[in-house]
Structures
1.
Amino acid sequence: MDTKLTLKLDSKTIDKMKVYAKKNHQTLSALVESYFENITTEAHETPAEYSPVVKQLMGKVNLPKDYDFKKEHADHLRKKYK
C-alpha cells in the first residue's frame, strides 16, 4: 500500500534531484523509496561479510607491524607526480 509522505527540502536540492531522476528515467518518489529501502535493509544493520574472493586473498600478504601505509602512499604520489 502506498502512503503519501511530505518532505521539506531545499529547493536547489529538489531541482537537482529532478534533473537526476529524469536522466535516470525515474521519479523522485522512486528514488526516495529506493534510498530508504537501501538504508533500512538487514545488510546495513549487520556487519558485511567478506566476499569469497576477498576471503581467498586474506593473509596472502605479510607486512611488518610498523608498516606505514600513509608514508608509503605519500611516497608513491610524490614519485607519480614528480
Note: The helical segments are 11-23, 28-39, 42-45, 52-57, 69-80.
2.
Amino acid sequence: MTSVRPKLKPDTHKAVTAWKTQTGQTVWMKASGSWSTNPAEIGAFTGEAAEAALSKARTQEGEITDPYFMEVTDKGRITGRETLRETIRANGPTVPYGEII
C-alpha cells in the first residue's frame, strides 16, 4: 500500500515513517535502522543514505506498512510541507479518545 506524497530533494533531510502492521502505531526509523514509536528518536537521512533507509524499510513490509519519507530538520524534528499531518501522527489524535461520539 502506498500513497502519493510530495517529492523531496536529495539534500533535504528526511525521516522514514510507517505504521506498525500489528498495532497500527506510527513508527519512525532511527538512525540505526531500527524502528521507534518515540518521535524524539527520528533519524534524519539525506541523499543516498535516505534512499537506502527507505529501501530497507520496504523490505520490512509485513512488520511495518506503507513506509515513506517525511521532511525533518537535521536533528530529526518534524518540519516541511506535511508538518500538521506529521505533528498529529507524532502527538496522537486532536480529540481525546473519550470525547469521540
Note: The chain is about 20% helix and 20% strand.
3.
Amino acid sequence: MTDMTVANTIAQQIGRRAFVMMGTRHKLGDDRSLTFDCRGSRTVNKIRVELNSLDLYDLTFWKVTRRNGEFKVKVVEKVEGVYFDGLRDVIERGTGLCLNL
C-alpha cells in the first residue's frame, strides 16, 4: 500500500481551484510525488511535483502527444528547489495559465 501523505499535501498546497482552472482530470500520487494533467495549456499537458531531499519541490513539465498510435514525450522545463508557497507561481509560469481569480 502506497503512503499518499506527500501527494495529498502537494494537492492541498496547490489548491482545488487551481486544478479546476487547469482542467485537471487525473492525478497520480506516490510516496514522494504528485503527477497530474493540465488541459488548459498549449505548451504542457503533464506536470510532476516531487518532494526532494531538502524538503523542497522539484517540478517537471511535459508535453505528451500521440501520433499514429505512438506516444512522444518531451520535457519542456524542469524547476528545482521550490518552496511550497511558490508552487502556484511556478506552475503559472510553466503553463502560461492564471491560477488565481
Note: The helical segments are 5-14, 16-22, 87-95.
4.
Amino acid sequence: MSEKRRHFSPEEKVGILKKHLLEKVPVSTLCDQHGIHPTMFHRWLKEFFEGGALVFQRLKANGSNKLEKRISHLEQKLTQKNEVLSELMEEHVKLKKSLGEI
C-alpha cells in the first residue's frame, strides 16, 4: 500500500528548517520525526534561501513606498500652504491699496 502524502504549511516547513539551522538538530532526526524524505527537506531549504531575498526586497519596497507617499503628502501640504499664503498676501495688498497706503 502507498503512504498518504502529508502536506506541511509554510509555517510548519519554516519551523522544521529552523530546528535544523538554529538548534542544530540533524536532518535525519527531523526527517524521521516528521516523516519526510531528506530530499524534500533539502528542497525546502533551497526554496527558503532562494525566497529569502524576496523578503528583503519587499521590506525595502514597502519602506520606499511609505517614504514616497509621505514625501508626496508633505509636498501637497506645502503647495496648499503656499497657495493660502499667496491669497492672503494678495488680499493684504488690495486692502492697503483701498486704504491708500500704497
Note: The mean pLDDT is 87.
